[in-house]
């Protein structure tokens, strides 16, 4: 029995998408699509085509090539596709160029979207409200091309959020990122220790900030002992944090 046999909406398509490691295109077809793109707008009887984590096509009649491309096809008759992430700044006219718009269902962007019955998705806010208040009515929630919800049910094996609460610090003994990071002017010295603690010296003032930190890939999150959170990013041999660019001393 397939792990998705309990999903009552296009279970075969879900099986194919979940097991799609060959880079097959995925096509959600015959939907009303609220692209939120200022040029494309809203389309009816339209198709959304994505490969992996990238939207590659949106509009009518893409389905005619589905067989040629060996696409996984999901019929969305009577349904609306809407962005699952909303760019409120763009909606308010706060971005100067179309290329700056994020969270729109536009070729080149990430396929983060909801599939909701037409009557529950007159616009993007109502579609998102359906996810929050009536998740059982959501046909699909897709994040970066991977199903998260399907037929109102969690997809087996999906990514899950971390448990609430402050995580324990990892033992970073031997990590190449442990040590004293110094900005180019020598103003900021940030020491990362193997027990998950940091200690900043600023302008010669020792212990200006102290607290805990966690590293996830190239991201570093800080929780200061004063109670505030901050963020940094490792880029090659540099640590970028709050406008400072640091290297290991």
TrEMBL record:
Protein name (database record): Atu4866 domain-containing protein
Organism from which the protein derives: Streptomyces scopuliridis
């Amino acid at each position: 029995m397939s792990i998705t046999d309990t999903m009552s909406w296009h279970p075969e398509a879900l099986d194919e998408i979940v097991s799609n490691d060959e880079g097959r295109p995925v096509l959600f077809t015959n939907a009303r699509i609220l692209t939120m793109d200022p040029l494309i707008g809203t389309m009816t009887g339209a198709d959304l085509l994505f490969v992996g984590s990238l939207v590659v096509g949106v509009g009518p009649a893409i389905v005619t090539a589905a067989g040629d491309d060996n696409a996984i096809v999901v019929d969305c008759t009577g349904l609306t596709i809407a962005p699952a992430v909303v760019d409120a700044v763009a909606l308010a006219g706060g971005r100067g160029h179309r290329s700056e718009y994020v969270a729109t269902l536009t070729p080149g962007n990430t396929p983060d979207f909801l599939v909701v019955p037409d009557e529950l998705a007159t616009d993007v806010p109502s579609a998102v409200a359906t996810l929050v208040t009536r998740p059982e009515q959501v046909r699909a929630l897709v994040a970066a091309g991977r199903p998260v919800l399907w037929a109102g049910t969690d997809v087996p094996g999906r990514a899950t959020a971390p448990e609430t609460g402050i995580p324990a610090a990892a033992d970073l003994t031997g990590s190449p990122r442990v040590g004293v990071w110094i900005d180019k002017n020598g103003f900021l010295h940030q020491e990362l220790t193997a027990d998950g603690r940091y200690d900043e010296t600023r302008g010669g003032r020792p212990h200006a900030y102290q607290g805990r930190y966690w590293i996830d890939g190239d991201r570093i999150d800080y929780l200061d002992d004063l109670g505030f959170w901050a963020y940094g990013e490792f880029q090659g041999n540099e640590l970028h944090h709050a406008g400072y660019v640091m290297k290991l001393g």
